[in-house]
Amino acid sequence: MVCLIIEHPEVVVCEHAIPKHISQDLQLNPITSQLSFFDHYNMVKFAVIAAVGAFATAKISPSIHRHLEANHDVDVVVEFRDGNQPALRAANLETATIQTRGARIAHVRSLLESNMETSQRAAVELLSSQPEAFTTRVESFYINGNMHVYGANRIVLDELAKLDNVAHIRLPVVVDLPVINDEDDNVVGLPVLDLLSNSTSVQAANEWGVNLISAPTVWAGGNRGEGVVVGILDTGAIHTHDDLKTNWRSTYGWFDPTDKSPTPIDTNGHGTHVAGSSVGQNGIGVAPGATWIACRGCTTSSCPEAALTACAQFLLCPTDVTGKNPKCELAPDVINNSWGGGSGSNWYQANVDAWRAAGIIPVFANGNAGPNCGTANSPGDYKNVIGVGAVGVDDKLASFSSRGPTKDGRVKPDVSAPGNQVRSAWHTGNNAYKTISGTSMASPHVTGAVALYLSANKAATYDDVYKAFTTTVDTATLTPNNTNCGGVSDATYPNNNYGFGRINIARATSGGIAPPSPSSTPVPTSTSSAPSTAAPSSAAPITPTPTTLDPVPTSAPTNVPVTSTVAPVPTSAPTTVPAPTPCNGCTACYATLIDYCFPPRYTQAQCTTFTHFNAIWCGKK
């Protein structure tokens, strides 16, 4: 047997191993059949080189080739065979017997780090051996097993692609920040609640979204989210804001992978607003007793993949501000993600899988690409996250709220929450506020609600939370859109508009039983007040009259109108004060449902039209 050794790439070709189509050519072609085996050396050599080169090239995304037509180098993401899945499979088998949460997460981290080192070893050796002219910067992430290579040229990419365990080489993802909507036209005929601008005033009442999901009822029982840590992955947050400064965790509570700021910053405002709706004080947040930490995965206008991945890693196992000295026991219990883009994109799936393996609950905005069907954004459309749609004060689905189904036909969002015209903290000052709209605003309402649920149910898992939130939703007050996205009727739940329905945290924490109306109310000062895809639920809510938005619990047919506001107080138990008058101090048109006093310019006749708010006239006849 005669063999040839082709040096680049090194391939051994023996006479009996000549490809069938070449051997047939040797026999049938009268010209080539007169040649010896060695006369075909070059033919075989080039054929083998071409075949191996084509296989390697197939691993490189076409978009990279297009980029290199006009550029000398490119930043890329190298994905390895099996990713982080071997580590997560091991974690699922091994962590069940580990007693403490911190130790379990530390074990998950250790498995992920070992997996990364093994899978990336050949790539690291290759890149380390490159000539100085080809030097590139490399950033490896254990959470998903990916490697980011900055400034790679075509030679480096070709060599990487030849490695057996390199699965794919692609361009990094950049997620655009959601467009901020100051007002949505889906709320037809509703007055603007005098909150649609930058403001430095503090309301002496809870925000309407906080009331709509019945958070004050939970507070009245002494639960404001104490003992729960909420992670905010966004543009950062202003930790000195009046409504955020008391419950930020200064130790292992901040990481900025882009600008390395040692203290929290926010140059956009989006993250501060989100943090406020989730855990803010003075009635703007759902879980004011919870502790919050943040990671700056987004800059002023966009969210680079490397930053989002670095934040996913930080929130899995927090480090100091330099990214060192990890303490996994300080990981958050739930993470809010008010960002996303595109549909059916799995680039962030491995990070989410790692969070889930660590017992961390991921909540994602469903996207602002509505009203068309099939517009749910990734990662909000993933199977193992809670994707959130947005409703307005009238419980109507916001027109911008993305609809399902997902690319593989699943129902999304999972639940809906207040997200249209939401007032919260703003980054321009320690007492600044702004009202904006988006599923970015709905997601933190669910995140805060999860914090309340976990505070009451310390050992609850993701599955426990998902079941509790999807089986205790309010649906009777929701308005069908008659779009029947994905062939699912809007009149049945879950559907691809509202998901299972709009969350009701009071019912979720009480096991679906409507708790009694709170008997306490805050004592406001002149400047401030102390302050949720399976089958539809079998219990259908009692349908209220068309003139009210007040939800009627499914398990107890008792109307519980919201006529008072309960806000958190510094002590663990709320302070009881005399019951408010029906108008709660209002001398104009009073909306009992959202505890809001409309400006005096609205007349008694106009007040009678605000039936969705359970409005009553409190002014002079």
Automatic annotation (TrEMBL):
Entry keywords, A to Z: Hydrolase, Protease, Serine protease
Catalytic activity field: Hydrolysis of proteins with broad specificity for peptide bonds, and a preference for a large uncharged residue in P1. Hydrolyzes peptide amides
Gene3D superfamilies for this protein: Peptidase S8/S53 domain (3.40.50.200)
Pfam families the UniProt entry points to: Peptidase_S8
Catalytic residues of the enzyme: D234 (charge relay system), H270 (charge relay system), S440 (charge relay system)
Top enzyme category: hydrolase
Peptidase S8/S53 domain location: 225-501
UniProt-annotated stretches for the region Disordered: 401-423, 509-552
Classification via InterPro entries: Peptidase_S8/S53_dom (IPR000209), Peptidase_S8/S53_dom_sf (IPR036852), Peptidase_S8_Ser-AS (IPR023828), Peptidase_S8_subtilisin-like (IPR050131), Peptidase_S8_subtilisin-rel (IPR015500)
Enzyme Commission number(s): 3.4.21.62
GO BP of this protein: proteolysis
Transmembrane found in the keyword field: no
One GO MF term: serine-type endopeptidase activity
Residue spans of biased composition, Low complexity class: 522-552
Assigned protein family: Belongs to the peptidase S8 family.
Name used for this protein in its record: subtilisin
Protein's organism: Aphanomyces astaci
Source organism phylogeny: Eukaryota, Sar, Stramenopiles, Oomycota, Saprolegniomycetes
